[in-house]
Amino acid sequence: MTYSNHEKVLKQLEVKPAKLKKFLKHNAPKERGMGIASKRCQRCGRIRGHISKYGLNLCRQCFREIATKIGFKKYS
Predict the structure, then answer these.
(1) How does DSSP classify residue 51?
(2) Looking at the chain, which runs of residues are DSSP E strands?
(3) Low-confidence winner among 6-10, 16-20, 35-39, 53-57 (lowest mean pLDDT)
(4) Taking the complete model, does pTM exceed 0.70, yes or no?
(5) How deeply is 18 buried, as exposed, middle or buried, from its count of CB atoms within 10 A (0-12, 13-18, 19+)?
(6) For 1-8, which contacts have Cβ atoms below 8 Å and span 24 or more sequence positions?
(7) Which CATH superfamily is domain 35-70 in?
């Protein structure tokens, strides 16, 4: 199970209500108010490598893919 998607486990446990209840009690992710997990990429949902400068709210991988489309220029 990854940090980004716990719905896969919930789908598997739908037929087992007792195990589903226990899973939700102990393992369901909670809303984050601060810290690294509070900011996510708007495009793909990644937590790591987040660029929030200029209100971009993208991860570095998504930024590299769409940087030229949104007007950034690469100087080398």
Answers:
(1) E
(2) 50-51, 58-59
(3) 6-10
(4) no
(5) exposed
(6) 3/29, 3/37, 3/47, 4/45, 4/46, 4/47
(7) Ribosomal Protein S14/S29 (4.10.830.10)
Q: Say whether pLDDT at 1 is over 70.
A: no
Q: Quick check: 71 pLDDT over 70?
A: yes
Whole-angstrom Cα distance, residue 50 to residue 44?
Answer: 11
Rounded-to-integer distance, Cα 13 and Cα 7, Å: 10
Residue 51: strand pairing partners: 58
* CA angle at 42 for the pair 37 and 47, rounded to the nearest 5°: 25
Residue 6 has pLDDT above 50, yes or no: yes
Within the chain, which residue ranges are assigned CATH 4.10.830.10?
A: 35-70
